[in-house]
């Protein structure tokens, strides 16, 4: 009886074929990994969005209350009392961290007292790491018109802009034109929302000049008298938030 030998028709990959496959996989990884990382970062950021919204609602409620209380306020005085310092520029931006106003905003927002990864040094900090809002500037004269917008007293108590960071390493959330986004509207050269004098140049608040109130800040590099809002480095740091 003859032995039948079955010819093996299975061939392995050649070295060239293996190299081609590896190159293709490397190209796909280079294209897909940044996108996947972006999706992961967005998903992480979204878990903090409810807290950002709560802070905004609480801050607007406090500004509305202050509107009712501020009878006799000077025409160019900041609308929130008890600021730790104010900038020297004509816009009178205010650091109001740890004031009664700021404490009440965070209390109304119902935030936890600490966050496990809040500090740059790994220690827990109060939440949020940063929260700042922008209302109409107290330096603008009521009745004046800029870019089609006639300024009102209510503008000084209306929040047009906010930035919120839950922790030092969290992606920043920005509120402007009535929406929340992770795109920085102050320093995105392709889609600027403010001009160099902090006038809103498009959207629902077009023509309003913004004045900033820093409500919470746990970046230890930018705290204290004559620091934060007065300090150019503080604003340079905000430019890096993307």
Give the tally of structural domains.
1
Question: H/E series, N to C?
Answer: HHEEHEEEEEEEH
Q: What is the total tally of β strands?
A: 9
Strand content: 15-25%
> Would you identify the regions where 5 or more consecutive residues have pLDDT less than 50?
114-124
So how many helices?
A: 4
Outline the structure in words.
It is a single chain. The chain is an alpha+beta fold. It has one domain. It contains 4 helices and 9 strands, in the order ααββαβββββββα. The strands form 2 sheets. Strands 1-2-9-3-6-7-8 form a 7-stranded mixed beta sheet, covered by helices on one side. The chain has a two-stranded antiparallel ribbon with strand order 4-5. About 5% of the residues have low confidence.
List keywords for this structure.
single chain; 242 residues; 4 helices
Summarize the topology.
Elements: H1 15-46, H2 49-69, E1 85-86, E2 94-95, H3 100-109, E3 130-136, E4 145-146, E5 149-150, E6 159-165, E7 173-176, E8 179-181, E9 210-217, H4 232-239
């Amino acid at each position: 009886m003859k032995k039948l030998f079955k010819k093996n028709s299975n061939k392995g990959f050649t070295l060239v074929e293996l190299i081609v496959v590896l190159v293709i996989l490397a190209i796909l990884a280079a294209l897909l990994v940044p996108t996947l990382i972006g999706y992961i970062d967005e998903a992480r950021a979204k878990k903090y969005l409810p807290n950002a919204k709560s802070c905004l609602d609480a801050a607007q409620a406090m500004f509305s209350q202050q509107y009712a209380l501020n009878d006799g306020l000077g025409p160019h005085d900041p609308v929130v009392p008890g600021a730790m310092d104010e900038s020297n520029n004509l816009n009178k931006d205010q650091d109001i961290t740890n004031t009664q106003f700021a404490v009440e905003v965070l209390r109304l927002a119902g935030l936890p007292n600490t966050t496990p990864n809040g500090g740059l040094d790994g220690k827990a900090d109060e939440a949020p790491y940063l929260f700042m809002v922008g209302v109409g500037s107290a330096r603008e004269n009521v009745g004046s018109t800029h870019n089609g917008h006639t300024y009102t007293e209510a503008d000084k108590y209306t929040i047009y802009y906010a930035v919120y960071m839950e922790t030092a390493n969290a992606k920043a959330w920005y509120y402007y034109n009535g929406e929340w986004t992770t795109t920085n509207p102050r320093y995105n050269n392709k889609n600027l929302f403010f001009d160099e004098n902090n006038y809103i140049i498009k959207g629902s608040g077009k023509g309003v000049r913004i004045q900033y109130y820093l409500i919470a800040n746990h970046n230890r590099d930018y705290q204290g008298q004559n620091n934060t809002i007065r300090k150019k480095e503080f604003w340079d740091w905000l430019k890096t938030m993307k």
